[in-house]
Write a structure and sequence with these properties.
The protein has 416 residues and is of the alpha/beta class. Helices cover 27% and strands 24% of the residues. It is built from twelve helices and 18 strands. Strand 9, helix 6 and strand 10 form a beta-alpha-beta unit.
């Protein structure tokens, strides 16, 4: 009997190695290689050339005139993120932190989509009783969506095919396993095979598939990066710590605009749409407050008003701190360096804290002006001729030298 071969697969990036090693040569992580059975070729090679199949191709013009039908999910914000609704035969991956509302949103969508056709909700993390209790809390106990507690992907696909489901929801993809792969659920090979099986089923049957995915501590969907390449749409839930507002962001979308966002509020009855998202990104001060600037940010097809807050204070340590919430830390450091070099703002001995209200991330470069304006307004820098040059005339070299001499010798220049 021939000895079965095995390979060592990295559980972080999916790279394969013929032998075990402590560090993955592709991603650099330690102790992530796990032995798995090597995939075998499907069918033996024949001696002669393979017979050509009949021509089943079609022209691009014939497919271009066919309008892609979409299904309304019952939530205008979710439809906006998806590009106008759920496309038949598409595969959508939704990720987010634990408890952020992924299963709640899927259950609400299942109840609304059931009016357009059969919906199958497959859960691998909870029992049917737990799902029913959540539906009762959300007021969806009368929904006619079908439920199944199963972790074997072949069984789920078979039930969905026999039911003729138009929508299949899998919660979550990390709990699924395939009988064709000899590894534990959640392994890289299992994630690849289960996702490939669900993608094949969606494309062949026209069923829209929604996958719920776990995320790592870095905020990325757990599993190999190829998982995001296989699906059609990737959505991420974002939220500030302790906030009841949720931002659903489209990272990848083959049927609509990427980087589109939908805003929800978590209530007792589930996720509710926020009709005016700009209102939650503003702190609403009664009087003008120093260190706070309102700017406009464009997310997809939507323009939002957001508030940027910056505080500069004297550092008590040898290394001044640069703390950024909602802003990239390296970007904040670069902007402060530009303000010092070209604007004369001396923030070398200052702790700088930058925050974007509402938990949204400021990625557009139009927000740089708001950060720099906040950094330059404190009155303590207004006495410095170098700081005044950013807003008024450029001081002479003599005035700069007099200011530096006063800082170096506050009580007068010592005599030799």
């Amino acid at each position: 009997m021939a000895k079965s071969k095995e390979v060592f697969v990295c559980q972080n990036c999916g790279a394969a190695s013929p032998k075990w090693q402590g560090q993955c040569a592709t991603c650099g992580d330690w102790n992530t290689l796990v032995a798995e059975a090597a995939p075998t070729a499907r069918g033996a090679k024949q001696g002669g050339p393979r017979a050509a199949r009949a021509d089943v191709s079609t022209s691009l013009a014939a497919e271009a005139v066919v309008d892609t039908p979409r299904m309304a999910t019952g939530s205008a914000e979710l439809d906006r993120v998806l590009g106008g609704g759920l496309v038949l035969g598409s595969v959508t991956l939704i990720g987010g932190d634990p408890g952020i509302g992924k299963s709640t949103l899927m259950l609400q969508a299942a109840a609304a989509l059931n009016a357009l056709g059969p919906v199958l909700y497959a859960t691998g993390e909870e029992s049917l009783k737990q799902v029913a209790l959540r539906a009762r809390r959300l007021g969806l106990q009368d929904a006619a969506a079908r439920l199944i507690a199963e972790t074997q992907v072949e069984e789920i696909v078979g039930v969905a095919a026999s039911l003729g489901a138009r929508v299949l929801i899998v919660d979550s993809i990390q709990t699924m396993h395939s009988e064709r792969v000899e590894s534990a659920p959640g392994a890289v090979s299992q994630l690849r095979e289960c996702a490939a099986e669900l993608v094949r089923f969606a494309k062949s049957s026209g069923t829209a598939v929604l996958l719920v995915g776990h995320v790592t501590k870095e905020g990325q969907i757990a599993g190999p990066r190829v998982l995001e390449h296989m699906v059609d749409t990737v959505l991420y839930f974002e939220s500030d710590t302790g906030s009841r507002y949720r931002v659903l962001r489209s990272v990848k979308n083959r049927f609509g605009a990427a980087n589109e966002i939908g805003v929800f509020a978590m209530a007792e009855q589930g996720l509710r749409e926020v009709s005016n998202p700009s209102a939650i990104f503003l702190s609403r001060h009664e009087t003008p407050v120093s260190g706070s600037v309102i700017t406009v940010m464009r997310e997809g097809t939507r323009s939002l008003l957001i508030e940027v807050q910056v505080l500069a204070d004297t550092s008590l340590g040898s290394n001044p701190r640069r703390v950024a919430v909602g802003i990239d830390g390296n970007r904040l450091t670069m902007l402060l360096a530009v303000a010092h070099r070209h604007g004369g703002l001396m923030l070398g001995g200052q702790d700088v804290f930058a925050n974007v209200v509402g938990g949204v991330r400021l990625a557009e470069t139009a927000g740089d002006l708001a950060i720099l304006a906040n950094s330059g307004w404190p009155a303590r820098f207004a006495r410095c001729p170098l700081a005044r040059s950013a807003y008024a005339r450029r001081p002479s070299m003599a005035s700069r030298w007099r200011w530096c001499r006063r800082r170096m010798y506050p009580s007068g220049r010592p005599r030799a």
